[in-house]
Amino acid sequence: MWKSNQTCVTEIVFLGFSDFQALQVLLFVVVFTFYMVALLGNSLIVIVTVTDRALCTPMYFFLRNLSFLEIGYTSVMIPKMLLNLLLETQTISCAGCGAQMCFFILFGITECCLLSVMAYDRYVAICHPLQYTLVMNQRVCIQMAAVSWSIGTLVAFGQTVSIFTLPFCGSNSISHFFCDILPVLRLATTDTRKNEAAVAIVTVVFIFIPFLLILLSYILILFTILRMPSAEGWRKAFSTCSSHLIVVSLFYGTVTFTYVRPKSVYSLGSDRLLSLLYTVVTPMFNPIVYSLRNKEVRSALRKSTVRQTSFLIRCG
After folding, report:
1. Which of 45, 255, 269, 314 has the largest count of CB atoms under 10 Å?
2. d(CA 154, CA 173)
3. How far apart are CA 287 and CA 292, in angstroms?
4. Who contacts 57 (Cβ-Cβ below 8 Å, separation ≥6)?
5. What are residue 210's phi and psi, to 5 degrees?
6. Side-chain half-sphere of 214: how many Cα atoms within 13 Å?
7. Phi, psi (rounded to 5 degrees) for 191
8. Which keywords belong to this entry (predicted)?
């Protein structure tokens, strides 16, 4: 796989935020803080949804998958970025770049699929509450999660292999802080139109089709809510969906503006800033959104904190 690259380019240079030398330390502190908050928040969600019996429902099973996914998503890129902010030589090997890209695609595509599955779960819960436990049983939930992860894995492996079997014998610098698909593809010293077409197809099939399914689920949910006779029913239904809607808006808003905006408004600075939003900021907000807007999660977090505090007091 790497034979053609070993004779030309052996490492990739991240230009990243090198044009903001005066802000390197500040950027490091901000990104490190956001990363720690995202890591801690998502880890707590994983722990409480595993240990608390009250959270053994399909919604929290998928939330656990989402939080685990966010941990991997941020950890693939941010530690290397933080290290590069501290070092003068900001490089990554071709093998490391390929691995980073592969996991970036895997977690990104899996999240798109998982968010659509979570929307379907909310649709069944609100539109067909009497059939909910039958339709969303444990076996079905595991199968849905497994299919989401499998799609992400297959797409990631296929895209990574197709890109890194191209010849790279020219420039080895990219104006980014991680191995994103299009910046790396521009380094190839051959015709990349087929690869660009493949990326476009993947974007439509595995990013926008899941988004359309999410949109359809919420249109059907809205019709059901409008037929509810009581305001209390409206409130409960909107409360059930609000956290997921916020997460979907954050994720798809930043991703869409990054990859689908017209070239007339494209700039390297805005591209890197938007990439920071969906790689650091969005994963940080997800556990905050679910914990602040969900009574069960807040209660589980409080109980977990009390147990840990009691354990530390006894040990002390």
Report:
1. 45
2. 28
3. 8
4. none
5. -55, -35
6. 24
7. -70, 120
8. Cell membrane, G-protein coupled receptor, Membrane, Olfaction, Receptor, Sensory transduction, Transducer, Transmembrane, Transmembrane helix
| pLDDT tens-digit series, residues 245-283 | 989 998 888 877 776 665 555 555 567 777 888 888 889
Question: What local confidence, expressed as pLDDT, does residue 85 receive?
Answer: 85
3-state SS class at 293 = coil
Statement: residue 64 has pLDDT above 90: yes
CA distance 149 to 152: 5
pLDDT in tens, 168-189: 988 899 988 899 998 899 899 8
Q: Which residues of 295-315 are buried (b: 16+ CB within 10 A; e: fewer)?
A: ebbeebbeeeeeeeeeeeeee
Average pLDDT over residues 158-166: 95
What does each C-alpha distance from 83 to 16, 39, 53, 172, 314 come to in angstroms? 12, 17, 40, 19, 38
Q: Which residue has the tokens 């009581």?
A: 230
Model confidence pLDDT, tens digit, residues 11-44: 999 987 777 777 788 889 999 999 999 999 999 8
Structure token digits, residue 40: 């801690």
- Tokens (6 digits) for 116: 């659509």
The identity of residue 134, as a single letter, is: L
Q: Distance of alpha carbon 146 from its chain centroid, rounded?
A: 17
Q: Are 168 and 224 in contact (CB under 8 A)?
A: no
**How many whole angstroms separate alpha carbon 116 and alpha carbon 214?**
5
